[in-house]
Recover the amino acids of this structure.
């Protein structure tokens, strides 16, 4: 369809969440904004292929996600200072404690496999249905569900649970220390 | 998973993937807090101006994005 006033406004209205998605994916504010810009150019160049009445945010997210994936394959995530760059995007600096917790969360999120991270963000933060998320990622609904579940479990293990992973080594270390001390 | 049964209570019953509802909601909360921080920043001038500029050109952007004009996203 042609670019009407209302369609243009709808595209602009989607920009804040496109940026949030891009930053969540890339962990880098500057790169995220370039990604959003490219998405907008791509969307406007292909606006004829947008079906009136269909889900505009989902269409835009699909473009952004595909751009990110092709870019990612080229770069292989060379940017390591994700947290530092991300913090720069915040208008108000969070309190010390909140900031620390925030960085831990951000770091844990970056440790997830990309498939799981994007699924979790789309469903858990962007508020897309499993169906929309599946169409954005080009996979089955069941695949999205399992990715989201695995993402949550992994985050929980990284952030909140002193699980079995820590237990074994800790016990060994304690035994060694205790043994040598006596 | 079986040993968790012994400590299960209303608030700590693990859901899918062995997560308690409490941890699930904590993850959800942090995820949205992170995301909404960016959403609240609104539309940076850069993007508002970009759309305005493209609009003035009749909605057909110059070929400044790498190869954008020949792609057919969503077309079949």
């Amino acid at each position: 369809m042609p670019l009407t006033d209302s369609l243009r406004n709808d595209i602009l209205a989607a920009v804040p969440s496109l940026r949030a998605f891009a930053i969540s994916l890339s962990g880098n504010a500057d790169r995220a904004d370039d990604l959003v810009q490219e998405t907008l150019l791509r969307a406007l160049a292909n606006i004829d292929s947008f079906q009136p009445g269909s889900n505009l945010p989902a269409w835009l997210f699909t473009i952004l996600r595909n751009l990110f994936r092709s870019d990612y394959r080229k770069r292989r995530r060379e940017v390591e200072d994700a947290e530092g760059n991300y913090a720069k995007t915040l208008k108000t600096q969070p309190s010390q404690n909140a900031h620390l917790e925030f960085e831990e969360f951000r770091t844990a999120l970056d440790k997830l496999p990309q498939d799981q991270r994007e699924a979790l963000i789309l469903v858990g933060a962007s508020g897309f249905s499993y169906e929309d998320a599946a169409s954005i990622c080009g996979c089955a609904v069941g695949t999205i569900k399992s990715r989201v579940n695995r993402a949550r479990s992994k985050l929980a293990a990284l952030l909140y649970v002193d699980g079995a992973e820590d237990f074994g080594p800790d016990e060994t270390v304690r035994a060694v220390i205790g043994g040598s001390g006596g | 998973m079986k040993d968790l049964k012994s400590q299960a209570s209303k608030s700590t019953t693990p859901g899918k993937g062995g997560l308690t509802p409490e941890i699930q909601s904590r993850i959800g909360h942090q995820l949205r807090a992170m995301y909404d921080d960016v959403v609240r920043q609104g539309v940076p001038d850069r993007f508002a101006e970009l759309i305005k500029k493209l609009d003035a050109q009749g909605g057909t952007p110059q070929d400044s994005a790498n190869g954008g004009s020949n792609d057919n996203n969503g077309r079949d």
